[in-house]
Amino acid sequence: MSHTDKVVVVTGGSRGLGREMVLAFAAAGADVVIASRKSAACIALAEEVKSAHGRRALPVACNVSEWAQCDALVETVYAEFGRVDVLVNNAGLSPLYPSLDQVTEALFDKVIGVNLKGPFRLSALIGTRMAAGDGGSIINISSTEAVHPDVFSVPYATAKAGLNALTLGLAQTFAPKVRVNTIQCGPFGTDISKAWPEEFRDAAAAQTMLGRIGEPNEIVGAALFLSSEAASFCTAATLELHGGRR
Known about the structure:
about 45% helix; SDR family oxidoreductase
């Protein structure tokens, strides 16, 4: 599953699952683009990548919910590297709300923007260039909420269900040179999970056959596999990574 000299773009790449994937791709020999809203966090991780793995790392501040910022990210990456081999649409958010009728238009648009609109625009731009060139791989990071929505995440679940559909559409559109797959995640113990009430964490763990939530680095194997030649016959697939959610 070597990624030597590949160029990998990871959105939401400065923390959580994105950070783990950035470090793993660099350790596997790739040059990485770290895209996230906060420039300082991207820069800090880029320096860590260069120091630890000796790979090129490009930090780019980008809010993927903004169409123009997606366009600017793509232009910056191609100006720096000339190509993209792997795109990981990882950026996501799921704000809390008191009740469904109190979800504001701004909150709804923000959730759809980050979780679905951004992946659509980046995949459309980068996938088109991949298909016209040497091909590549796109990985969408989805959630079990897409198929098991709860009352606290209906807008998020809706966006992730759309992302699952996007995977299928992109795989068809950019075949045969671009493979597009989904990693459908269950609960992971990222920095965001620190804000979870203890009873929520316990309930999430109890819903899995493994009896625990995932560690952030446990996404690495799936991401490296789906973006490598080891998965050369795998496209339009959903890899469920949820510890055996029941």
